[in-house]
Design a protein that fits this description.
This protein is an alpha/beta fold. It has 12 helices and 26 strands. Helices cover 34% and strands 25% of the residues. The longest helix is centred in the middle third of the chain and has 23 residues, at 145-167.
């Protein structure tokens, strides 16, 4: 039990969509008088993960859309601690954060111990390399903003080299990008690359355009976008091929090496840039930080209440949680809407737990899936009572709904007034800011 007169301390690790929404709600409800709400994240700012493909292609300036944790914490009544979790001591109810180092390897802050009465793990997931040799050495990932920024810089360098090669007499020079994984991230990135390529000639690359870009989208399964209806997936594949993307389904990647993707059929696909976007698993470090029960993908196994099956005081949500609900044969999928719904339930259950009330079970509402093919098209399906089950959408209607998802995210983390103001500002920025970020 907490020490008398000691504040109830709720620690949330991970400032992604679910974690940031949760601390806003907790801070708004409890404030600082009797509670100490702490958010821990290794980054200083938050950007909505579904936007990372736009950051990577240069279509979105993350500096204008990111949320600083420090300022957000002051506004909503919680504390922000910049760090990453290293270990959990369940008996003492403490966590230890790893030392923070600067770019030269010098220590900024040493290991830090933080007490908790309730702990929420919202640390997200990482790309699953499925043990394929060479992935960690030769592929790039889009798991956070630094990785997206790194890809954008490498992409720009490749485009500059190709532009110069054409100007100096090499008409066959191309920028070759291989994307492994035909889910939403891979598909959206492929389309966004062509959108960026079309605009580069207006930014100093006089002879570069989309014809100088070769993108291969490689999917091990029978088709891309398995979360969508087969007809919609086929529509998306057709749209990508019209743009110039080479879509290879039923194609397993068996090895990566510098500048090349090796497939199970024996084909070697040359690539200047390789992006790995195939599958999600829990972070490798989670297996060593505690004795919480995990599944084979390093995700924390939770009850329907989203409490860890190992410890009632520890909750998990989002991509790092494995929640198999009664009557289902698969855990809740790692999607943004899952994290949002889980954050809402964890908030409710933390309130109820402190009031001595029985906790509620998670009820997952699948609202469908939408995939944006940049400005070229949007496809998807909507589910729910408003549409009588399932409705397939394409074109401007799908694009409008897709855009509304980000608006809902802004309202979830900022509240109605500030969220609405940021939506209006976003519209203005789309008009006045450059179409591409090249620095």
């Amino acid at each position: 039990m907490p020490v008398p007169n000691q504040k109830t301390q709720i620690v949330v690790v991970g400032g992604g969509a679910g974690g940031l929404e949760l601390v806003r709600k907790l801070g708004s409800r409890y404030g600082r008088k009797y509670h100490d709400i702490i958010l821990i994240d290794r980054n200083l700012t938050h950007i909505w993960k579904p936007l990372l493909h736009e950051v990577a292609a240069g279509s979105l300036d993350a500096n204008l859309d990111e949320v600083g944790y420090g300022g957000h914490a002051v506004r909503w009544g919680y504390r922000f601690f910049n760090g990453s979790i290293e270990s959990i001591d369940r008996a003492a109810r403490t966590i230890t954060t790893a030392p923070m180092l600067d770019d030269s390897g010098e220590e900024i802050i040493g290991r830090h111990q933080i007490r908790y009465d309730y702990l929420v793990l919202a640390i997200g997931g990482i790309s699953n390399d499925f043990g394929v040799p060479g992935v960690r050495e030769h592929a790039m990932f889009l798991e956070d903003r630094p990785q997206a920024d790194r890809f954008r810089q490498k992409l720009l360098n490749a485009c500059l080299r190709t532009n110069h090669a054409h100007q100096t007499g090499n008409p066959d020079a191309r920028v070759r990008v291989s994307i492994v994984g035909g889910g939403a991230t891979g598909v959206e990135l492929a389309a966004e690359l062509y959108n960026a390529a079309k605009a580069l000639r207006h930014y100093g690359l006089e002879v570069f355009d989309e014809t100088k870009l070769e993108v291969s989208l490689i999917e091990a399964g029978p088709r891309i976008l398995p979360a969508l209806d087969e007809t919609l997936a086929a529509t998306a594949k057709h749209e990508l091929e019209v743009l110039g993307v080479r879509v290879l389904d039923n194609t397993q990647v068996v090895r990566l090496e510098a500048g090349a993707v090796h497939t199970g059929s024996g084909e070697v696909i040359a690539a200047d840039l390789i992006v790995w976007a195939a599958g999600v698993k829990g972070a490798d470090a989670i297996a060593t930080m505690s004795d919480l029960e995990l599944n084979r993908g390093n995700q924390v196994i939770v009850r329907p209440t989203l409490q860890s099956v190992t410890d009632d005081r520890i909750y998990a949500l989002g991509d790092c949680a494995s929640c198999l609900l009664p009557g289902r044969d698969k855990p809740i999928p790692p999607r943004a809407q899952s994290a949002h719904q889980m954050a809402s339930l964890v908030f409710t259950n933390l309130v109820r737990a402190q009031a001595g009330q029985p906790l509620k079970d998670f009820v997952y509402q699948d609202h469908g899936s939408l995939v944006s093919l940049s400005r070229f098209s949007t496809v998807g399906s909507l589910m729910g009572n408003l549409v009588g089950g399932r409705m397939f959408v394409e074109g401007w209607i799908a694009r409008m709904v897709y855009t509304s998802l980000y608006r809902m995210h802004l309202i979830a983390i900022h509240g109605w007034w500030r969220g609405t103001a940021l939506i209006v500002i976003g519209h203005v920025n789309q008009i006045v800011r450059p179409k591409l970020k090249l620095h």
